[in-house]
Amino acid sequence: MASRFVVGDRRYAIIAFFIFALGVFLTAARTVKQYQTPGPFDPSRQGMCDFHNGIYFPTRAVLDGISPYGADYAAANPVARQIPFFLPSILVLHTPWVVMPLHVAEVTYFLFSLFMIIAIGAVVSASIGRPIRADLTLAVAAALVFSRGGHITLFDGYFTFELVLATYLAIHWGDRRPWRAAVMLAVVASKPTYILPLGFIMLARGNVKAIIIGAVLSIVAAGIPFAWIAYHEGEGDIGRGIEILRNDFTESQEIHRAQDDESPVFSWTRVDALAVVAKWAGKDPKEAAHLVAMFVFLIPSMLLLHQRRRAGLDDGLVGVTGALILLTSLVSLYHQSYDTMLMVGPLAAVLMKTPSSWASISGFWRLALVGLWSVPLFNYVSTRMIMGRIDVGPMGVRVLTSINGVCLAAGLVILVAILVQKRPTQPGA
To answer: What is the phi/psi pair of residue 13, to 5°?
Structure first.
């Protein structure tokens, strides 16, 4: 039986490994040097801050039956603030870390994140072509570690790598292994801004069974810890506990939206199209505007995917199908710069010209897509660290912080235009 794993080009594998190892070493060194002691947020020392604020202490609170969305939790724990609204199911998945002492948990989570990076690389390699190649896996891993999103996720200790891997596997399994895809969708559902666009567009792709099962699993996975928290917060009265949770959600979201890095007008990290428009309009959009903008971008992509499905065209995670799903998800609804790691798979596939759907696109447009997708991944200029050291003025700040969103939106428009122009007459088209 043929091996499932091969080295590929040994020289490239060695080079990729050393680049990956260098990136890990530099990130680990920065994490130690700029380690943030749990407590108030210090922008000059962010090492593992998201692990403290978004994983360790909130998970411990959930297990104790305390709402991590409430002001009482924030006051009683060494955190910057209560967590924004994402489902407690993702916190429950991190239970193994809260039984460890904090520093042990930090080290093991850093190592776990490295495993997630390698796993993402392996999924990309498998999607481009089997057997899984070590050289390609390590090349993708190295690109992730040196990407803006990958570096900051590893440095801050957030769970974005888990969301990226779950999103990839949901798309990869969506059309043939619905139960596996559903489990991954239940993980993705923990963050509403991920699951909303992804769910709609996977429905258009025809992954109905995966979506339905995933919805049921998500409700169960979130409902149990929510009920646990409500029971304890309400001191045995679940109805009262639900009301407390509802108030906590409202307050948490208000605090969350008030942060400069969340407001589309002031954020240097938002990459969705509406955030770019709001930045130049100088006005925060209402909640309804986010939904309208989402469907403005979703509908054309959904129609294209539906048309391609009826023609029997689906080139998978890293083909034009996956690229369209991922790009539409990023552009259509609230996403931060670290979420642009989602594009590393399609980017690798375009460079490899595999599957054949990429080879059928002219070299000029492939190069344009590579450039537009690479900018958000590796743009370190549009960061607080760089912009704090150079004076570019208010106009310069707006331009620099809009680049990522503009590149993603332009990449989506070009991809949609290419697919509209190409008639879906044969697989791989």
So the answer is: -65, -40
- Structural contact between residues 158 and 51, judged by C-beta atoms closer than 8 angstroms: yes
- Tens of pLDDT, residue by residue over 271-321, are 999 999 999 999 888 889 999 999 999 999 999 999 999 999 999 999 999
Amino acid symbol at 52: H
Structure tokens at 6: 């091969």
- Tell which residue, 135, 273, 309, 89, has the closest CA to residue 197: 273
Q: With 0.85 as the threshold, say if the pTM is over it.
A: yes
CB-CB contact of 55 with 68 (8 Å): no
Q: What is the pLDDT of residues 237-254, one digit of tens each?
A: 999 999 999 999 999 988
210 vs 406: CA distance, rounded Å: 32
Q: Sign (positive/negative) of CA torsion 306, 219, 246, 188?
A: negative
Would you say 210 and 185 are in contact if contact means Cβ atoms under 8 Å apart?
Answer: yes
DSSP 284: P
CB 334 within 8 A of CB 405: no
In sequence order, what are the residues at sequence separation of 6 or more whose Cβ sits closer than 8 angstroms to the Cβ of residue 51?
105, 106, 109, 156, 157, 158
Cis peptide preceding 346, ω within 30 of 0: no
Helix segments in 234-362, DSSP class H:
238-257, 273-281, 287-310, 320-332, 344-352, 356-359
The answer to whether the CB of 88 falls within 8 A of the CB of 95 is no
For 20, how many CA atoms within 13 A lie in the half-sphere containing its CB? 21
Tokens of 218: 């998500």
* Distance in angstroms (rounded) separating the CA atoms of residues 270 and 279: 10
Distance (Å, rounded) from C-alpha 261 to C-alpha 401?
11
